[in-house]
Amino acid sequence: MKYPVTVYGDPLLRKKAKSIDKDHEGLSEIIENMWETMYYSDGVGLAAPQVGMSIRLFVVDASSGADEEPELKDFKKVFINPEIIETFGEEWEMNEGCLSLPDIRENVSRADVVRIKYQDENFEHHEEEFKGYAGRIIQHEYDHLEGVLFIDYLSPLRKRLLKSKLRNIATGKVKTHYRINVPVK
């Protein structure tokens, strides 16, 4: 089932998400639906708050970056209860977008490497480092669990220039090929 994507203006996107355990009701179905929603929406990552659930869960498929980084060929992972331990390496800028901010793309600077501990869909513990494109997607999706959006990294001037686009998103005056959940005012 494809979930509607929660868009800018919904307070849920600004909340810190709660940890879950392996008995979380319907978890495998939630994960399956998140994959379906992400692929349908042409995303490379999707966090649970983006589909209306304030839980610490996100999915990532970085295989689209395999042309530039061949090791990403089969990169598809579920992150449950993740915790970033550290970010390091040279900061680099890349144009980012977000399903919760349709029609907005901006250059964002992030560290090259992220060290993160998390549980997978079987609740097995992992601590790994990810770099490059995969590391960037993971940092972006992790931010959603902390109530942070990529526009928070922009200068005050860039944010002001986006004000009318953000207002249009928050009021549902935006066209997407995927369903969105517009905040109720």
Can you describe this structure?
With 185 residues, this protein is of the alpha+beta class. The chain has a single domain, classed as Peptide Deformylase (Alpha-Beta Complex), CATH 3.90.45. Helix content is 23%, strand content 29%. The chain is built from three helices and seven strands. It has helices spanning 27-40, 132-145, 156-170, and strands at residues 5-6, 45-47, 57-61, 76-96, 106-119, 125-131, 180-181. It has a five-stranded antiparallel beta sheet, with helices on both faces. A hairpin with a 5-residue loop joins strand 5 and strand 6. It starts with a strand and ends with a strand. The mean pLDDT is 97.
What are the salient characteristics of this protein?
185 residues, alpha+beta, 7 strands, Peptide Deformylase, two-stranded parallel ribbon
Oligomer: single chain
User: What do the pLDDT scores average to?
Assistant: 97
The residue fraction in helices comes out at 10-25%
* Largest sheet properties: 5 strands, antiparallel
CATH uppermost class: Alpha Beta
Reading the helices and strands in chain order gives: EHEEEEEHHE
**How many helices in DSSP terms?**
3
Structural class: alpha+beta
| Rg result | 16 Å
Strand order of the largest sheet: 2-3-4-5-6
- What is the number of strand segments? 7
| Shape label | globular
Question: Mind telling me the CATH superfamily name?
Answer: Peptide deformylase
The separation of the N and C termini measures 27 Å
As a percent range, the share of strand residues is 25-35%
The CATH architecture comes to Alpha-Beta Complex
By CATH, the topology is: Peptide Deformylase
**Any idea how many domains?**
1
Low-confidence stretches: none
